Request: fold
Amino acid sequence: MSLFARKSIPALQREAAATGDGTLKRSLSATNLVMIGIGGIIGAGIFVLTGHAAASHAGPAVVLSFVISAITCALAGLCYSEMAAAVPVAGSAYTYSYATLGELMAWIIGWDLVLEYGVGAVTVAVGWAGYLNGFLEGFGIHIPAAYASVPFDWVADKVTHIDHFVSTGAVVNLPAMLVVALVTALLVVGIETSAKVNAAFVVLKVSIVVLFIAVGLGHVLHSNWVTVANPEGLFIPPNLGAGQFGWDGIVRASGVVFFAYIGFDAVSTAAQESKNPQRDMPIGMLGSLAICTVLYILVAYVLTGVVPYDQLNVAQPIAKGIDAMGLPWLAPFIKFGAILGLSSVILVLMLGQTRVFFSMSKDGLLPVSFGKVHAKFRTPARITLVTGMAIMVAAGLAPIGLVGELCSIGTLFAFALVCLGVMALRLINPDLHRPFRTPFIWIVGPAGALASFYLMWALPADTWIRLIVWMAIGLVIYFVYGQRNAARVRAERGEEI
Reply:
């Protein structure tokens, strides 16, 4: 039964109320949290994945894919808000699962979150490098090809439909590694500094996104929906096979672009660094989700209206849209906005990953030394450096096609468990003070879980295989180390924690 031991809510609340040395610094306001959410959400979804999802799966109907993903996120976001307000500690869904579903499930979801945030940061870093290369080339600066992309690409054979690696001839993606190194240093210095930098990036990139929408709406032509596979120019192209257009393609694209919404999830990992988490966490998560959903829908509509969707499977789809509009003066601004936008996404994702690791190490499921807080900066500096190095290496080598969908399935799994966890906590601890209560929980909770599982089901089989392999590795670590060294076990043995 130790596998199902739960961490008590009072213990979590005492941990949240602790101050002084060895604790994270509470310095984030509601505005900071909304900015963190927007910083995490607006990035790869607009600047990288929109084109891929439209070209490969949904066509112009990628707009509907974003709507489906947003609805799923809203259901999960309502559940996240209740948990984050009631239990305002670092760790997000990992901590919530520990309080409701038990230690083993908490480990599984924590390990899943590590995958979600880590792989997400790698994906965005690769996209960031592509936009940096394009931006510098506009000024006649060329990074040698061998050091500007990953050594292998992940592609699907159109005959066999089997995904496989293809050598690109490159050595390493040096720009992707550089941005991860810079973000790691920023996160070590402090959450307050990181929040200020993120806020500046958010203001600039949202301004540029709004500029793209405003200019692009006047250039939209529905004739661009006409392609060889869609001769009638339908908003929803006819289905060509599993996951290729039609409703099946829309759902598949929803699973792919769902990655674009994980920023609001990362907001919950900063609960222990919020000044007033009971009030501000729901505002941060739901507010950022609402703002970004509107921007995503408008950008997807404009992009597929100015460029035929079958030409959008490129590293810089927004830049291609600018070229199609014949507005070369706008291209440098859009590319610069993409660089800033993707930078803030990397920052938010790495913030989330390090806070999950921090919580797991504080509970003894990972080495306790990882949970040490820097005396001066009041940040989990050790685990930030360790994860930063791992993400930096992966960003230099991993192709974006391999890691994008893997991040989406990890996010959806986390969302489903949070929806289930909120319902479980309502039954286990009905008298718990809940500053924010999810409305219609017995409708919202099951709907959020089912929607998440449905989008998971729509993802390719090889993505499921990679998730299962990652989870198997995690279970080995848990049973070999985590279960034996959990803080509750060491306390029972009378050891110092």
